[in-house]
Amino acid sequence: MQVGACIVSQDQIILGIGYNGFPRGCKDNQLPWAKKSHEGDPLQTKYPYVCHAEMNAILNKNHASLTGAVSVTSECSSNSSRFRLLGTAMLHS
Fold first, then answer.
1. Which residues face 17 on adjacent strands?
2. How far is residue 15 from each of residues 3, 34, 54, 79, 84, measured CA to CA in Å?
């Protein structure tokens, strides 16, 4: 499932956007995309490398402060996403 996130300031200015995938600078063909490894090696799956949309939005933010900003996501697929969503809303940088 592709998830997107947008961090918005109190003045409704977009401060950062992101999606669930590899962090900025990592090309899709440089790391594994498999959900399971044939050898059972977790490092041969995508899970150690893929970031949640909210985390990528923080990594891709502009130079403005995120204090008081809110994260809006297209989906909330796991408990860690919900935690990050709350964490983004309360983030101080």
1. 6
2. 18, 32, 12, 24, 16
54-89, pLDDT tens digit by residue?
888 988 888 778 888 888 888 765 544 444 444 444
- Specify whether the CB–CB gap between 12 and 68 falls below 8 A: no
Q: Mind telling me the catalytic residues?
A: 54
Backbone angles phi, psi at 43, to 5 degrees: -70, -10
pTM to 2 decimal places: 0.68
Amino acid at 91: L
Q: Map out the domains of the chain as residue ranges.
A: 4-89
d(CA 2, CA 10): 26
Q: pLDDT tens across 9-45, in order?
A: 888 899 999 988 888 788 878 888 888 999 999 999 9
Domain 4-89 of CATH type 3.40.140.10? yes
